[in-house]
Structure prediction request, 41 residues.
Amino acid sequence: MEYITSLESPFDGVVSAFFFNAGELVSDGMLLAEVTANKEE
Prediction:
């Protein structure tokens, strides 16, 4: 069993949704979070 301690995104942004609950077991390849990209200024 592995524990997720961080998530990586290919761009800067804000996590707008999580698709799991604390303590929930997830499978490899599952979508865990949605990240909304920061708008460039």
Observations:
- The beta strands are 13-18, 33-37.
